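Hi V.,

You were right to ask for the full record rather than a summary. Here it is.
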Amino acid sequence: MTGTGTTKRERLRQARRSELVDAALAVISAKGVVAATVDDIVTAANVAKGTFYLYFSTKDDVATAVADRLADGVVDRIEETAGIPDGDPVERLRALNGALREFGGGQHAGELVEILHRPENRRIHEQMSRRAFARLEPILIQVIGDGIDAGLFRGQDPRLAAAFVMGAISSLHDVVSQPEDLAAVTRQLDGFILRGLGYAGEIGS
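Predicted structure:
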């Protein structure tokens, strides 16, 4: 009985925390990280300020939770396609880039690029990137290793190659000044990455 009660309480806590993160994402979408306040977030979540501090110590803490939510959404989508072990490595890499273009889908998909590329949101973008790359690295290593084994990529250290790929991806926020340009730039990145890995086949548009 006690265990069941504890589980139920934990589910309620997780649900309330998720509601606060939802509210923080909505506020950050509208105002940016710098301008957003704890008062804004609790108003959006329709909870007392004391409730916020049961889950987060500061605004920075909830901003980090927002970044983690966005990063996990990106990598979850990547894992659906790029992480398939028996899929074609080239198509898995392209799927990875496609997921990056869409920033993970979900309720706020249409807003994410604009939100994250605002100068005032640079910190949350960088936090998201760190979390996403931590999960992305083993997937990339596996895909590159599979491509080498299949003779599609030249022989090389998959870990080092994955680091180079992640470096190229992480530079996007420095070279893309307008969110609407991201899709075209990442399509070019497909070719850059594939040629860099030694792929000699058709790159496509």
